Amino acid sequence: MRINTSILVVLAIVGLTACKKQFYDEDVLVDPNGASVESVLNNATRGQISQLAVGVQSSMRNGILSYYRETGTVGREIIYSASTESRYFNELLGTQAAQYNGMNDPAGIMNTYYLNYSSLRRRAEILIRSANNTTALTDQEKAATRGFAKTMQAYSVWVLVNMQGKNGIRETFSDLSAPGDLLKPGKFGTYESGLALAKTLVNEANADLAAGGTEFPFTMTSGYTGFTTVPDFKKFNRAIAARIFLYQKDWAGVLAALNESFLSLTGPLQTGPVMTFSTTTNDQVNPLYHVPNSSGAPFVAFNEFITDAEPGDTRVFGPSAKVAQRTSPRTSGAVTSTHDVTLYASNTSSISIIRNEELILMYAEAKIQSNQFADAIVALDRIRTAYGLRPLAVAKPTILANKNGLIDEVLNQRRYSLFFEGQRWFDVLRYGKKSILPLQGTIGANTFVVFDNFARPDAEVQWDKLNP
Amino acid sequence: MKLKPLLLLILLMPFTVFAQSGFVASGRVTGAQNNPLSGATVSVANSNNSTVTDATGNFSIRVSNGARLVISHVGYAPKTVNAAESMNVSLDEENTTLSEVVVTGLATTTRRGNAANAVATISAKQLTGSTRSQTLDAAMQGKVAGVQITSNSGAPGGGFLVRLRGASSLTQSAEPLYIIDGVYMDNSQFGTGAGTNAFTGAARTPTGSQDNSANRIADINPQDIENIEILKGPSAAAIYGTRANAGVILITTKKGRAGKLTVNFGQDVGFAKALKLIGLHKTKWDKQFQFGTELANAARLTTLKSTLNPTDETWDYEKIVYGNTGALRNTRLALSGGTDKIRFYAGGNVMDEQGIQKNTGYSKNSFRLNVDLKPTSFIDIAVGANYINSNSDRSFSGNDNNGVAIGYNLAYLPNWLPQLPVNGVYPKQPLTGQNPLEIVDRTVNNEKVNRMISNYTVGVQLVKNDIHNLRLTSTGGVDFLTAEDEVYIPDDVQFQAASANPGASRYTTNRALNTNLQGFLVYNAHVGNFSFTTSAGLTQLRRDVRLNYFQGQGLKPAQRNPSTGTVQQASETFQGEKELGRVVQEEINWNDIVIATAGVRQDRSTLNGDPKKYFTFPKASLAVNVANFGFWKIPAISQLKLRAAYGETGRSASFNSTFTTLTDLIIGGQAGAGYPTILGNAGIEPERATEFETGVDIGAFSNRLRIEFTVYNKKVKNLIESYNLSTGTGVSSIQVFPVGDLQNKGIELSLGGTPVRSRNVTWNTNINWWRNRSLMTRLIIPEKVVASSGFGSFGTQRLREGASPTAWYGTPNVNGVPTLYEDSQPLWQASWSNSITFLRNFEFSILIHRSHKNFNSTLNQEITDEGGSSPDWSTIDKDNNPLGQSRKLGKPGITTRQFIVDASYTKIREISLYYTVPKTIFGSFANKFESIRVGVSGNNIAMWTPYYGYDPEAANFGNRPTGATVDLLSFPSSKRFFFHFNVNF
After folding, report:
1. Shortest CA distance to B850 belongs to which of B908, B929, B891?
2. Rounded mean pLDDT of B86-107?
3. What distances in angstroms separate CA A298 from CA A81, A83, A342, B649, one per listed residue?
4. What is the distance in angstroms between the Cα of A107 and the nearest Cα belonging to chain B?
5. Could you write out the DSSP letters of every residue in B477-501?
6. B231-266 core/surface letters (b: 16 or more CB in 10 A; e: else)
7. Which Pfam family, any one, appears in the UniProt record (chain A) (predicted)?
8. What is residue B657's DSSP assignment?
9. What span, in angstroms and rounded, lies between the C-alpha atoms of A197 and A153?
10. Residue A74 located in a structural domain
11. Domain boundaries, chain B
């Protein structure tokens, strides 16, 4: 007994000692599922820079569903008729605005665009920092990279500031990659200062692109075909700039920017960079596509889009129309729709970022505002005739010299040309014409409200409460 | 560190051995009806000396002159008697025994009568003696004070939320740690993908949080279990360290008994019916045709009616889908036997249960072998192995964004619309969504689990005499499981046909390997009236998980293989952790009168920011058996124990939370990457729960009345939660952060007794009552909505300092501040169990459970109102509008008030009547078997609730500590009835 015991104790101690190393070894210390953020911040390789730039191009698509869907409904263009989620045709039409200070639920599901576009902005900033912090790029390539990234930032700021309206957005984040910076976000500005920030960014980008040589040091994906060189991309930058200046009512600025953009009064309307989608593994598909006549969660049009259209408008009627009659109407709460949205032919169809058609319309608007009606009418007729409508001189002779009439005409052409592209609601707000939208006020037992802006997300409100 | 336990031992060594004169005491121990009791423990008071009775109840043991023997057996009240050379002892049956041992350390136990915590135990008889719950967690429902167990949905195969003494964590799973025979069990709720975009689209994440899957404790066969011990809070569970924040559930499986080979065969057959249906398709549609519904205007309804169904025929689709009878069967065979050197238990179980919905069900095959070896007098070896194979078909229910889930489709379906298949073709649902019968018949949501659990324990008696006892034990366990999921919807099912790439299938393989190893030295010493138990040891836990799936959409016609899909998605995720712990504990027992324990555990884990840093979790407890003092002069009260305990436990953040990883951003086949929107925290430390518990246990009138009263105050400090940042920075949150403190205060009262004990009737009864309230006492981050805690205006939960984290909030937002509503935690719960034996051979038992004033966020009314199918839709309100329209979200005056509703319920959890067939009626066959028992039972057979919906226990978001009780027409739960036949050989 005594011997047995001793042997066992010795064996146990020997055994434990032998196992000690294995017993204490750490198994998992690095993330087995992906690359760390730190790996790209300092001395990134060209491959890593390219990865970040492709990431920015990919990210640009992330907010499009939320942005287009939400503004499409607030602007009374479309309804996301998800029968299992009535908030899409309830909260967005303002039936609960009384409970939420006249807006949407700040903690609800309509706020995803906010993080999407903010993270696009941040990802572009990280690209800039990685590019500046590496020896793998030449100074010229660094400038080109900055020009690309800041153009994307200007675009995201433009979306955010228009969605948030008078709330403004956080305009500075001093040093995005510095430790603790995340805990010190900038203060909220105004609508005007937000647009000014977008302007600064887009102009800085323009200067960087001018110093950026010809080739980007990273892959430009196929959506940018025609805009893959630095000088061509600069034309895209100016198109975005024109959009920003338009909202600032800087009509001369609009015209100057358009002049350096890819505007062509005679060229194809569709020219412009696009967001591409594919069914490649782990890529995204076009989130705005749905099969016609779907009974799941289709995008359907407000009937007014059809009933308000001029006869013969091929954007509304005929085989290339943006809407198509459903086999049976679709009821979404208070709205019954006869037409599906058919903007996209398949779930791999591209979504336009900005195209010649919009540039022409911006040109027309700036010309009207500059009292150069003849130029504007040429541009408007370019659009009208392209879609089977007679020129203004024939169709609407009374407005040819009427500034207000022409503005209404340009807004109307924008309504049909940029249908379900996130601009209708902004347009009526820009001109203080909210009242022209249908479905407002008390109708039956319901009360509908067109928002002035989306609510500041709850996370931001709570942040400021704790960090005044 | 390594030397410390040894040092302690040396310090305690000086007590020397005394030679004592004595004699051999021998005798027989008997139980009810004078049957011999085998396996009863006969121990010499205040010594290590003990033995066990043999198959005929006989024992013999060497004792010193004047020694007293303590005779104990599980299920019987212990007795202390004077030792004699020849003696007979009979023990009385008891419901809750003071003699059973409860765990107080990783390698030590104590008698319940000496425990300083309210340790709840569930015996085999309480667990499965009455009826057959489908899963282990279901079998525990309502049986223990302080434990809230709710079923996430009625879908076959489990999915239960078990919460011990309120929420101990906010981000982590609420689930306690399960340990079976020393094996740390994996209780994950693996994602199947059923809730992802290609299927119900309930959650937009790659592996959905809304898959409505089961948690894997469901695999354990309740019939193999000898007893369950529940360490409800840190004061009892401290010694388990960083995995024990939500409590520990210790399961001991059945062991072989030496002696004659016993064979037990049991067969249960039964059926299941829906516990409650709403009556959706008994609705009158007159007002809908006049006013129109949310999803179809009046004109459309009228046209459809006249074209598709000109007759007045209607169909009760809710009944067609959920009104079926599910056949239940359960067969088991258990063998037990052995010798002094080797004992074994072998149990096999085959269970097959159909659901109340066609093509749903749960089946399980399990086999367990437990072998106990005693090769020499000083070595004990126990090994166990358990293989489990389970298969569940759960269909699609709960939240949905694609029009797939049955609940939504039933709610949106007018009862006059023909939907029954004609020659195999399912008519389309022309209004919205999908023909639910097609989902029932043609889709697959299946999970198959293969699981192997094995354990060993080796105990070596290094020193043993009357005074000293030094034992070395080593325990190890392996839990290996693969859960393979298939989710499939054929290409021509209505909603798929209307998608861009029709036909979707997803195959998921979740593999988890959990191993644990521990080594302990335990030293007992008896000095005079004192006994000391010192233990010290090391533990190691590892977890290695691999989750992968392959999904195809746009499948070739009638193909299930995802690789035929035109759109493919694949993912591979690795998780791993390693945890080391070291423990020292000392217990001092003065004559069973004062028992004091103190201990400390230190843990380190690769899940923490610093994987090499040890975190310390102390504990201390004191129990005083007042009635054991010499001065106690009240014979009616045989036990009066005052107890107090304090302890701390922790919980590390989940895997991945220390890493900040670039997000993959693919476009057009180009690999992109970007800054993540959720950041890791490389410095995160475990959250820590501290608990003070105190109480009193009273036993009176020969233990025919027992009272157990406990109050506790559990504080969780540095609670791990995500830190919501200003989203304007482009980052939504830091995934894990020590955000503040949470307090849980509660009361547990247990009242048991034997009001009647006569020759013909014995009635045992037990009443449990408990409550828990939670409060955020400190919050250093901005107030936030708890992620996945609900749906905006339908109610969500928020973290707000000075408020309960399980309370509901919603509209109106007054100046941006949401309105506070009631709590999802019940105000109190109570259960009442009764067991009555009468006419010698009959036994009746019933368990009633009430949950009082727990509030759900429910969309049941809203969904059925939108669809026009709520039974009272057409009732006209004061403004002459149908209720089905005027109480909807968005109507004037409708706030979140409408959706936060009282979900109190009372359920008859278990009811049974058994009859032990007298052997006399079998004549000459009687010697061919030991006993035959037959019975009938029911499980959840009745429910009383004001709740509108299938079952107030629903929890759309699964096993979450907060925000769980959201209901969107979850799968109805069922009432189950059984006939039992049992024979012993």
Report:
1. B908
2. 72
3. 5, 9, 10, 51
4. 6
5. EEEEEEEEEEEEE-TTSHHHHTSSS
6. bbbbbbbbbbbbbbbbbbbbbbbbbbbbbeebebeb
7. SusD_RagB
8. T
9. 10
10. no
11. 3-93, 128-275+325-404+443-859+899-984
In the numeric block, which tokens belong to residue B642?
């005052």
Give the tokens for residue A254: 């609009």
| DSSP letter (8 states) at residue B693 | E
Does the residue A332 lie in any domain? Answer: yes
Backbone angles phi, psi at B888, to 5 degrees: -80, 155
Give A340→chain B minimum CA distance, Å.
13
CATH architecture of B128-275+325-404+443-859+899-984: Beta Barrel (2.40)
Interface probe, candidates B290, B410, B538, B667, chain A, greatest A C-beta count within 10 A: B667
Instruction: Please enumerate, as own/partner, the contacts of B31-34 that have beta carbons within 8 Å and a separation of 24 or more.
Output: B31/B73, B31/B76, B31/B90, B31/B91, B31/B93, B32/B93, B34/B90
pLDDT tens per residue, range B604-641: 999 999 999 999 999 999 999 999 888 988 889 988 99
Query: In the structure, what pLDDT confidence band is assigned to residue B168 with cuts at 50, 70 and 90?
Result: confident
pLDDT in tens, chain A (468 residues): 444 555 656 566 556 555 666 666 665 567 888 888 888 888 999 999 999 999 999 999 999 999 999 999 999 999 999 888 889 999 999 999 988 988 999 998 999 999 999 999 999 999 999 999 999 999 999 999 999 999 999 999 999 999 999 999 998 765 555 556 677 888 899 999 999 999 999 999 999 999 999 999 999 999 999 999 999 999 999 999 999 999 999 999 999 999 999 999 999 999 999 999 998 888 899 999 999 988 888 999 999 999 999 999 999 999 999 999 999 999 999 899 999 999 999 999 999 999 999 999 999 999 999 999 999 999 999 999 999 999 999 999 999 999 999 999 999 999 999 999 999 999 999 999 999 999 999 887 789 999 999 999 999 999 999 988
Cβ atoms of residues A293 and B428 within 8 Å: no
Task: Return the ∠ at Cα A461 (arms to A457 and A452), rounded to 5°.
Answer: 50
User: Does A295 contact B862 at a Cβ distance shorter than 8 Å?
Assistant: no
Beta strands in A279-438 (DSSP E): 299-301, 323-332, 335-341, 351-352
* Domain hosting residue A334, numbered range: 299-341
pLDDT: which is higher, B877 or A163: A163
Output the six-digit token pair for A166: 């008078």
Q: Which residue of A has its CA nearest to B462?
A: A5
**CA-CA distance, A137 to A284, in Å (whole number)?**
30
Spell out the CATH class of B3-93: mainly beta
pLDDT tens-digit profile of B761-792?
Answer: 999 999 999 999 999 999 999 999 888 788 88
- Structural contact between residues B197 and B137, judged by C-beta atoms closer than 8 angstroms: no
Residues in B closer than 8 angstroms to A125, CB to CB, are: 730
Q: How far apart are CA A338 and CA A289, in angstroms?
A: 18
Cα B298 from Cα B306, distance rounded (Å) = 12
- Give B737 to chain A, closest Cα distance, Å: 13
> How far apart are alpha carbons B910 and B908 in whole angstroms?
6
Using CA atoms, how far apart are residues A176 and A149, in angstroms rounded to an integer?
A: 14
Q: Count of CB atoms within 10 A of residue A28's CB?
A: 20
| Fold match flag (B3-93 vs B128-275+325-404+443-859+899-984) | no
A3/B contact by beta carbon, under 8 A: no
Asked if residue A243 is part of any domain, the answer here is no
What string of H, E and C letters represents the secondary structure of B762-825?
EEEEEEEEEEEEEEEEEECCCCEECCCCCCHHHCEEEECCCCCCCEEEEEEEECCEEEEEEECC
Is residue A303 in some structural domain? yes
Q: How many domains does chain A have?
A: 1
How many residue pairs bridge chain A and chain B with CB atoms within 8 Å of each other? 346
Do residues B316 and B281 make contact, with C-beta atoms less than 8 angstroms apart? yes
ipTM of the complex: 0.91
